[in-house]
Amino acid sequence: MRITLMIKRLFITCLAVLAGLPVLPANAESTHVTMGGKGISDPYFPTAGTIATSVNQTRTIHGFRVTVKSRRESISVINAVISGDLDFGVVHGRRIFQACNGLVGWEGRPQSELRSVFTVQAEQVALITLAGSGIRTIKDLEGRRVFTGGVRSDLRDTVMDILKAAGIDPHRGIRATGAAAEEAPGLMMDASIDAFFYLMGTTNRAFWELVSTAEAVRLVPVSGSGIDEMTEADPFYEKSIIRLKHFPYFANTSDVDTIGVKAGLVTAARVPDKIVHTLIREVFNRVDEVKKRQPAAVVMTRAAMAEGMVAPVHPGAETFYRQSGIAHSLLRP
């Protein structure tokens, strides 16, 4: 058995050398690389899990395993990456900008050690209501009870931007309710709200619980001229489509227009180039698999993943892009 295992490892190593892949020492398989995303029920955590799954498929060749940990918000994920508690993190694009420039959450303390690896659309904005609510467009939210997320959460910031773009005063135009995002479905089941915003990337148990109620649940399009102008002017948002084949429990009969929130995979300057290079290579080699596992990543392409990074690009990622002939760019908000 031991001899067979040794032969198997030798065979894999030979294949790796022939393919030009970096080979780490035999005992490096025990090396653990950590990656974080906010909230188990939020899209960022499953996105981190999808990335980890892609990388771990060839762990016997490259020599490390990625494990995924959750944090409460993007701010705490970035802080964990900077402090060394995490090696990588999937976070909201605007939070990366704020961290690099010493803004909200890091006032006067630019996080100069933060580095970009690639961008990804981790989540889509879902506006959800009951079929009998009479809410068919964003404008129909005026005067209604609307869940907008917790204070200083990624969801709250996004909802504020959407309402303003749609011409609705987020403080006076609706009757806003704020709490942790996972509480929203329960509030609707209790008839405490008329609609709620949710950042959605994967199927979620909360939605299955919600559709167990007698009345059908609908998605309301997040679209219109104001929204179009917002996605053109704000680099952290882009147009997207919620594909019902991924979310069959909604009563809609066709796919729904919405916006996607750009996120990024970040790391710290201290993380070895080889680790970063290997991780990005494995993910880029399996983009189609990632898209199947992560519905919000439906628009993901290799070219798009290399565009609009906010923090300086990590040298390991720079090397990969150069060797692969993939043009990459930094975002200049």
Automatic annotation (TrEMBL):
Q: Does the keyword Glycoprotein apply?
A: no
Pfam family for this entry, one = NMT1_3
Query: From which residue to which does the signal peptide run?
Result: 1-28
- Write the record's keywords in alphabetical order, separated by commas: Signal
Keyword Chaperone present in the record's keywords: the answer is: no
Q: Which NCBIfam families match?
A: TRAP_TAXI (TIGR02122)
Q: What is this protein called?
A: C4-dicarboxylate ABC transporter substrate-binding protein
Q: Which organism is it from?
A: Desulfosarcina alkanivorans
